[in-house]
């Protein structure tokens, strides 16, 4: 049994007097002294989000008092404290910016741009590998890297710790657990406020405009943002308002434009909607008719329309008019929307953070979404989501016909075929057709040992060319034609880089590539056709 900790100090709490303040003043310092005495070593203090109470105090009108309280709480533990080894204070606001620690001038401020501390802002490759090895799931490294290696701090690629830890928890229970995005999109609230604000402006709901604007400012603006001369404060709020309105991509918003009777602070021109059918609604109809040769059906005898596949009769789009209040949006008027299905649940969850994209109205909310057709969502985005819904509901045969181009890594063994010489003699060559590869796909040719690197980027120009051949090394029943698009040096994408950075541990046959590798290959080859 451990010996009890002997009390080193005490304080009485008097809610009507100043004793509570003096107690808090020395609370953390006293705790470090007790810990140092008990464990016989100096203490490390970790303080996270120290600026949150400052923000809340500012919103509720007692900012100066909170500054004084935090200063009195933190300065004693960080300043001339013999029990302290070191402290780490984290958050968004720079410490010096708030003058919290009077007289404490030996801070080392480290930000995301400091290369020497890059590895401390998240997990590194080696740490993730060790973690997966510990849980007995080392084979998951490729997928974990593809999903969560999304940050570049200085020269180091790092992983989001929250995502990695939560996904490890899933994978240790089931190695087939689907990959998920565990980190919530913290900017959703701001986007929703922006959409609601613009909707209130459009429909002339003055009180709602004021309420939403105040909410936006209280959630995002610091007292120091407007720490300027009184006569200049209006310029700051003018800019904030202008930025909110500019979020509507199809609105013409002008600042300080001549209006005929002087200059208007902000002018807004909202595109007129077509009489009767909404303009975007008709654009959706035209897109589906042109690309898929499908006409709308009206099963309820009103304006609400269904689009379905001709073979399996499954719906892939439902265009209807729905009350905004039923969608959880401000206002009582109706809005035209389209319901669409998405197979990629991660992509669906990410989309729900975008303005104008909502959980499905009156359909399965796990797989379907509702998209506003009022111009909030860009036209090309709506078309892309329709195309995704069409494929998600199509038969297997139709999916193959309409699937978008894909990217592959294809091996080439120089012991049996000199592909480098072949591309010196011709831009287009015949190659063994890989299973699943279609015309229009991109193949990256990986040349095996002694090269062991990706050397060529090619476009598949023709497939299903009859050809029968077999020997002890290879058998072929069909060929494809591949046309040279670009070259890479052997030191750009060698096997070690593919393995360590992109999770490709073998290239024995045609295989898909992770998104991170696809982007890197495109970046390296974007400037010149031949590297």
Description:
Residues 1-19, 184-189, 273-277 and 526-531 have low confidence and may be disordered. The chain is α+β, with helices and mostly antiparallel strands. It has helices at residues 19-25, 27-39, 52-59, 63-78, 125-134, 141-148, 161-173, 188-202, 206-220, 233-246, 279-292, 345-351, 379-393, 396-402, 419-425, 495-502, 515-525; strands at residues 43-48, 84-90, 151-153, 156-158, 252-258, 263-269, 305-308, 315-323, 334-341, 357-359, 368-372, 407-412, 428-432, 442-447, 453-470, 475-487, 511-512. The strands form 5 sheets. It has a 6-stranded mixed beta sheet, with helices on one face. Helices cover 35% and strands 21% of the residues. It has 17 helices and 17 strands. It is flat.
List keywords for this structure.
single chain; 531 residues; alpha+beta; six-stranded mixed sheet; five-stranded antiparallel sheet; 17 strands; 35% helix; disordered N terminus; disordered C terminus
Q: What's the short version?
A:
By secondary structure, the chain is of the alpha+beta class. It is 35% helix and 21% strand. A hairpin with a 5-residue loop joins β14 (442-447) and β15.
Supply the number of helical segments. Answer: 17
Can you give the helix content as a percent range? Answer: 25-40%
% residues in beta strands: 15-25%
The side-by-side strand order for the widest beta sheet comes to: 13-16-15-14-12-17
């Amino acid at each position: 049994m451990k010996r009890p900790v002997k009390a080193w100090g005490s304080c009485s709490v008097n809610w009507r007097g100043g004793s509570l303040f003096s107690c808090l003043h020395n609370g953390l310092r006293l705790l470090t002294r007790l810990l140092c005495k008990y464990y016989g070593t100096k203490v490390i203090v970790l303080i996270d989000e120290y600026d949150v109470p400052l923000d809340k105090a500012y919103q509720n009108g007692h900012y100066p008092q909170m500054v004084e309280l935090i200063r009195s709480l933190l300065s004693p533990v960080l300043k001339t404290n013999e029990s302290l080894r070191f402290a780490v204070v984290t958050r968004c606001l720079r410490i010096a910016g708030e003058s919290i620690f009077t007289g404490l001038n030996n801070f080392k401020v480290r930000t995301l741009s400091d290369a020497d501390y890059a590895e401390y802002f998240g997990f590194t490759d080696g740490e993730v590998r060790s973690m997966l090895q510990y849980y007995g799931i080392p084979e998951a490294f490729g997928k974990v890297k593809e999903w969560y290696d999304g940050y570049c701090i200085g020269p180091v690629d790092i992983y989001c710790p929250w995502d990695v830890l939560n996904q490890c928890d899933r994978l240790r229970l089931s190695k087939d657990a689907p990959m998920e995005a565990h980190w919530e999109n913290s900017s959703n609230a701001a986007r929703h406020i922006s959409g609601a604000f613009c909707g209130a402006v459009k429909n002339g709901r003055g009180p709602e405009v004021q309420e939403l604007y105040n909410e936006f400012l209280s959630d995002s603006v610091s007292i120091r943002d407007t720490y300027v001369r009184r006569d200049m404060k209006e310029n700051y709020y003018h800019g904030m308002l202008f930025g909110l309105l500019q979020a509507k991509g199809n609105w013409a918003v002008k600042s300080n434009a001549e209006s005929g009777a002087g200059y208007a602070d902000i002018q807004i021109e909202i595109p007129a909607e077509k009489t009767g059918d909404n303009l975007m609604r008709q654009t959706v109809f035209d897109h589906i008719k042109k690309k898929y040769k499908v006409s709308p059906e009206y099963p309820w005898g009103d304006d609400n329309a269904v689009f379905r596949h001709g073979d399996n009769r499954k719906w892939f789009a439902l265009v209807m008019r729905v009350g905004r209040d039923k969608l959880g949006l401000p206002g009582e008027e109706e809005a035209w929307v389209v319901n669409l299905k998405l197979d990629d649940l991660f992509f669906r969850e990410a989309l729900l953070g975008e303005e104008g994209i909502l959980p499905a109205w009156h359909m399965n909310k796990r797989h379907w979404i509702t998209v506003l057709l009022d111009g909030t969502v860009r036209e090309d985005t709506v078309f892309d989501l329709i195309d995704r819904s069409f494929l998600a509901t199509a038969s297997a045969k139709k999916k193959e016909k309409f699937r978008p181009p894909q990217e592959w890594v294809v091996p080439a063994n120089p012991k049996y075929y000199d592909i480098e010489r072949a591309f010196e003699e011709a831009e287009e060559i015949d190659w063994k057709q890989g299973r699943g590869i279609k015309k229009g796909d991109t193949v990256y040719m990986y040349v095996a040992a002694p090269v062991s690197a990706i050397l060529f980027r090619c476009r598949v120009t023709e497939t299903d060319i009859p050809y029968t051949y077999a020997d002890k090394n290879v058998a072929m029943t069909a060929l494809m034609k591949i046309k040279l698009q670009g070259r890479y040096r052997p030191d750009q994408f060698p096997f070690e880089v593919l393995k360590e950075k992109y999770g490709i541990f073998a290239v024995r046959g045609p295989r898909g590539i992770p998104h991170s590798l696809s982007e890197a290959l495109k970046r390296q080859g974007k400037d010149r056709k031949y590297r």
